[in-house]
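Hey,
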Amino acid sequence: MPDQTTPRRILVTGVGANPGFGLARSLLKLGHQVVAVDANALAPGFFLDDVSPYVIPLAKDPDYPGAVTELCRALAVEAIVAGIENDLPPLLDLRPRLEANGVRLWLPDAKSVHDCIDKARFHDVLMAHGIPTPRTWAPEGLDRVPADVELVVKPRGGHGSQGVHMVTSRRHARVLCELVPGAIVQERVHGTEFTADCLVDRDGRASVILRKRDLVKAGCVAVSTTFDNQAVHDLVVATLRAVDAAGLSCVQGFIADDGRATITELNVRVAGGFALTEAAGADLVGQMVNGLFGQPVDHDQLTYRTGVFLTNYLETLRVGDIAELEVEAAPRGATA
C-alpha cells in the first residue's frame, strides 16, 4: 500500500515565508517532488535545489484560481499544501474542482478554517467552549476596556505578526484602530510563549508537540525548546476539538507564572519552527503526507524528546542577476 515513501508531486504555496519554505524543504528530504509557488519571483523557496518554481498571482487576485488550476493540470500535481493563510480561502473555493481533477487537499471544513483565520471568531469559539483566551474588543467597544489593561492591536485577519502593535492606553489603541485594517483589540498576555505543532487524523485523534518560544523576533521563533506539560497538552487538544481541526495546524499561547495557560491563536498550516519538532523525533511532515493521501497516521511516529533546542538566524540564501532567474509564471487558466 502506498505511503509517505511513495514519491508524490506536491504543490506548496507561500514558499517565501518560513512555514512554506520549511515544508518544501522537508518534503524534498522525504523524496517528494515539490512544485513551489509564490507571488514573489524572489521567494526564498524558489532557490531550494530540485523544486519546480512558479510565480502565481496573489491569493486575492481574480487570476489566482485559474493559475492554480491550470498549473495542477499541466504538471500533474497530486496534492496541494498551503504554507500561508492567505491561500486558504481561495483553495477552499477551489477544493471541489481540484479534488474532481485528482488533486488532494487536507483541510478542515470552511467554517473551521474561517473560525481560525478570523481572530474575532476564534475568540468567540474558544469562549463558547470555556477555553482561556485573551479578552477581545472591537474598535467601537474600547470604552469598555479597563484603564489599566495592556493591549494588543492587530488585524482581525492578519498573519505572521504583521500589523501587530503593543500599547498601554485606550487612546493609543483608538488611534491604531484607524490605521490597522480590520483591527481588533486584545488584552496583552504575559508569560512563557509556546507553540504546539499538531496533526489531527481523519478520525479526530490529535498528536501535539510542545515547543517554548524562548526568543521571538518579528513574529518568527529564533530560539525554541521542546517541553512536556500535560495541562497545556490537554488545553491544546480541547482547542483543536473546539474548531474541528483536521490535518496540520499550530496552536500558540502563553503559560503564566502560576502555570495557567491561555490560547491566543490557531493557524491552519505548519508552523515556521516545526523543524525543531522533527529534530526531536516527531515525523510531522511524513505522517501528514500519509494522511493527505488517505493512509493511516502513525501517532507512534509523532512522539518526541523534550529538552531539544533550535536556534535560528537569517542567512543569505542566494545572490544573483535578476535577468538570469529561472522562475516561470504559472499559466493563466479558466476555472470554468
